[in-house]
Amino acid sequence: MEFNVFEHFKGYQRTTSGPRTPQEQGTAFFLGGHMGPRISEHIDTSAARAGLSRRAFLGTASALPAAMLAVNKITGMRFFEVSEAEAYEPAAAKEIKINRKPGADFIVDAHTHICTRKDGYIPGVNTTERGMWFVQLLDDLGKAMGLPNGTKDMTVENFGKLILEGSDTSVAVFNPFGFREDYGGKDMIPIEEQAEVKKRWPTRTVMLGGGLTPNQGLSETLERLTMFVEKYQISGLKLYTFDSTKKRGWWFDDQKAAYPIWERARKLGLKNIGVHKGIPFGQFMARYAHPEDLDAVCDDFLDLNFIAYHSAWPYQHELAALKGFKPQRKNLYAEVGSTFAATVSNRPLECAHVLGTLLRDLGPDYVMWGTDSALWGNPQWQIDAFRKFQIPPQLVEGHGYPELTPEIKAKVFGQNAARIWNLKTTASAPALEPRRAVAV
Ligand SMILES: [Zn+2]
Fold it and tell me: Does the pLDDT at position 99 exceed 80?
């Protein structure tokens, strides 16, 4: 079993009610995995050294660094660039956080969602049993990540609070959910509801269209695509190759069913086509989560960019091979949402291998940051974790992975996304308006 969200959060217990800080969410996630009990012992030691109760210590800026230091110690490898001072002295940790200039990084979260709709998801009324599997999965994830009401808290309002105001994210790229066969004939997130996000934060968001599958009928799909561009001015697509129709899926390299979509996208001026790959969750067929169909479509549509969301994890090697052996390729991208979050805290070796494989084979110009928030609540702990994450020297030497230098992190964090979505970065400007950027 690769990644079962229920299994993953087994043993996770909410100990307080109300919103947690993002750092507390992150620390709790470190404590909830298989290394949890051993990390917990280190946290107790850190709390004692700081002269605080465990509960009080968990509320300080040292808690997350202490969990990271514990991972270094338990594994004997340097996965996190973190100092003893940060882990043991809350004042020092706070100082380090404050001194890190906000706005020094230009961060584009290529993978964000809301997950509510006015009609709700009512089993047997407007949602099938299978459709409820996905709602339930997102409910559990949200609750584990500090959203007491699960999907009901993944609102437009909270999108702003958690991602745009509550984290160092500069620009958030909005990803839709469709699957209307499971949701009473209406997209899981109808475009008119998701358009609220763009309306509220026009310069801080990029809106993608979705919910399209040729299995709903090709002409209908092309009509909807055109309407998304004309009425809602979408900046790209985020699609799913598994779907809820009778056929259960499709491929991007299907010349009859899919190529007319790319031709229409090209005509409408859309350049960036994202697709969920990997993480074969809930009601969907894993076979369609393999990325092999990106091979032909990348060659046949050289002027379009294809983005494999989730980096196709756990099939990241298949994705990486599509560039590792085809270095001429310049339009294949990976995005790390959920994949980084799910591995960094208690599968750090796997996390380093995934990032290392992508950076080595796709190249540092083709890997993009994403967090899959607000499904994961506030993304700030993920940002903090990536800032500190390293590919340990043994893996750099033994696998030819690049080191995670500040230059590479800056590309992953925002420069690559800024290039393909034409975002003006103000990262080098004084930190007056640190997170402003303009989508053009
Ligand atoms: Zn997502």
Answer: no
